[in-house]
Every structure is written in C-alpha cells, then in structure tokens.
C-alpha cells in the first residue's frame, strides 16, 4: 500500500470515519444544505480530486440521512459503508454568519434548533459489529482519516496501518485520554487546530506521529517533521465570504499530493515535500474562502480552473473567484423546522432525479 513509486490519483483509495453530518448554511442570498462534517468533507474532496473514497459512518433513517447519502453519492463518494438505522438520528449543524463593527465576516456553528431551541442530533460512532464487513472486505485503503476517537475508529486505523496504509488523525478534542493516546500511537500524521488543542503544550512534543501539523487560522500553520518545526504563512484570500472548511481543504490536498507523488511512506518525507503539499492545501483553502460553505468552491467551480487558480496563487499571480464559477445550482432546504429538514427537489436533486 505505502510505496514511493509515482502514482496517479486514479486507483488510489481513501477511507475515513468520524463526523459526517448535514450542514445547513444560512448564506447571504439563500439557505442551502450540503453533506459535511470533517470526515464527510475530506472524503468528498478526495473523491473530487480523483480518489475512490469510502466514509465509514452511522446515520439515521431520516430526511437528513437520505440527503447526506444522496449528496455524497452525487460527488462520487462510495457509500458502501454508510449505514442508516432507526435507532439514531443524523447529525445536523447550522452555520450562521456575523459581521463585526469593522465589516469582517465570520461564521459560527449552532447545534440547537433556531425554532424550538432543542438540541439537534449529535454524532454517533459506528460499532465494532458494524465495521466487521469493512475489515472482512478487500477494500484496504491507501490512506485512512479519522477525526473522532472510538473503539471502531481505532480498530479501523490499526487495520489500515497494519496493512501498510497511511493514517491521519485530526482531533477536535481529547476526550478519554487513554483512547486518545491509542489514536496518537496508531497515526502517522497528527493535525490539529490551535484554537481547539493549542492550549495543551504537551501535544507539540508527542512522540509517535511522523508529522505533526498545527493550524493557526489566519496566521498560517506550523509543522513538525522529525523534531524540527517549520512555519508557513497563510495566503490572503482573493475574495472572502466564508472560512469554513479551510482545514478540511488543507488535509485533503495534503493527502492527495502525497498520493499523487507516490510519497505515502513517511520515510520518504522531507521538509520541502511536506511544505509544498501543505502550501497547495493552504492556497486551495484561501480560494474556497470566496464561496459559502465548507466545500463551496468544489460545488460551484470547475475543478481544472480551480486547480490552475491554486497554482497561480502559489506563484503570486492574480486570480479571481468569478472566473472559477459555472453558475451551478445549490441544493436548498426548507427550514420549516430544523428538527426535520426536508430537501427540495432542486439543484443537485433535480440533476439526479
């Protein structure tokens, strides 16, 4: 699975488990929905980049669950290991925006229904029994991504690592310390955000991961390869609407670049190799800031034009959001009650009906 031979994205396989949800974005002109969550976004982005991607997720037999599965399938994601069951509800996250006194726009996530104030459904991990068909299959991935720690996630990560795959762990919190340590021990790459785990000084000194990445928001990121730390400044977004999903873009592009270059063996990693891959991820994230939604650029832009714009931004050339868009319709949802979101048959639904 891991080798240093030059490869193309076609034929490469990604698998991930963790947060897969329905994102509802209250945008400037309309409210729209998209399959989201860190795991959902990374799997969808890798599919867009040419990988066969397989999320392993547990969703509800409900309208949001149907929408998430449909949306992922539309983007080419393989949903063989996405289970829908009556005993759980599909997670829903509402993204709202605010503008400060200086005109700066920022987003926040809401986990309660704006109508009744009740809690929206939260994440439920897959069970050991549910993932057994994955372990028994011949669907061993080249890379494995996980953003939540659970017994099933750790078992999948260990299975992939023992099979020669690359494992990336991107936590948003620590939770159970013993389980967290097991995740650290099994991953090759640890990636975390300063505003989530940056207050824990010890995390920068962890042994085990070959590569540690700490994102710093608008200040860029730092990464540790071996025991040396390197800093990368952020790109300025040519046009800014929404910073949501920036970390997911950086993760997906990093993994895709390593796969495309046949450099998924950590032994082959150099500061230049990792820096170049992360810079491409940062540039893609900066361009995505010109669109609403965590995967707005992916859903509204031509891929070839977008990747050319990424290269232009890295080279210091001017680029614009306008030349990337094709005017694609966005999926819309009726917000009569966020406790039961009902997608309209427009946008992506209309194209696949």
Automatic annotation (TrEMBL):
Keyword Oxidoreductase assigned: no
InterPro entries, A to Z: PfkB_Carbo_kinase (IPR050306), PfkB_dom (IPR011611), Ribokinase-like (IPR029056)
Q: Which residues form the Carbohydrate kinase PfkB domain?
A: 34-297
What does the UniProt keyword field contain? Kinase, Transferase
Which is one GO molecular function term here? kinase activity
- What family, per the record? Belongs to the carbohydrate kinase PfkB family.
Q: What name has this protein been given in UniProt?
A: Carbohydrate kinase PfkB domain-containing protein
């Amino acid at each position: 699975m891991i080798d240093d031979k030059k490869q193309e994205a076609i034929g490469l396989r990604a698998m991930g488990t963790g947060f897969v949800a329905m994102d509802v974005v209250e945008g400037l002109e309309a409210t729209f929905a998209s399959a989201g969550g860190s795991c959902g976004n990374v799997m969808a982005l890798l599919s867009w980049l040419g990988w066969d991607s397989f999320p392993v997720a547990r969703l509800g037999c409900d309208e949001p669950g149907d929408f998430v599965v449909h949306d992922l399938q539309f983007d080419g994601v393989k949903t063989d290991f996405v289970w829908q069951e009556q005993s759980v509800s599909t997670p829903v996250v509402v993204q709202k925006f605010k503008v400060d006194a200086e005109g700066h726009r920022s987003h926040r996530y809401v986990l309660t229904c704006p109508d009744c104030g009740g809690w929206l459904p939260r994440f439920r991990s897959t069970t050991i029994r549910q993932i057994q068909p994955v372990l028994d299959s011949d669907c061993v991935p080249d890379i494995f991504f996980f953003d939540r720690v659970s017994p099933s996630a750790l078992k999948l990560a260990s299975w992939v690592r023992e099979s020669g795959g690359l494992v990336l762990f991107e936590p948003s919190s620590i939770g159970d310390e013993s389980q967290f340590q097991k995740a650290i021990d099994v991953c090759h790459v640890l990636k975390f955000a300063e505003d989530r785990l940056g207050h824990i000084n010890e995390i920068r000194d962890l042994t085990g991961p070959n590569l540690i990445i700490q994102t710093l928001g608008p200040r860029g990121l730092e990464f540790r390869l071996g025991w040396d730390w390197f800093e990368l400044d952020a790109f300025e977004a040519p046009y800014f609407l929404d910073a949501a999903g920036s970390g997911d873009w950086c993760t997906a592009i990093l993994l895709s670049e390593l796969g495309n270059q046949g450099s998924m063996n950590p032994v082959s990693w150099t500061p230049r190799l990792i820096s170049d891959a992360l810079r491409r991820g940062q540039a893609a994230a900066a361009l995505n800031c010109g669109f609403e939604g965590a995967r707005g650029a992916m859903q509204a832009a031509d891929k070839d034009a977008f990747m050319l714009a990424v290269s232009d931004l890295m080279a210091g050339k001017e680029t614009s959001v306008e030349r990337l868009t094709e005017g694609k319709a966005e999926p819309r949802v009726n917000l009569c009650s966020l406790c039961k979101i009902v997608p309209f048959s427009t946008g992506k639904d209309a194209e696949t009906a």
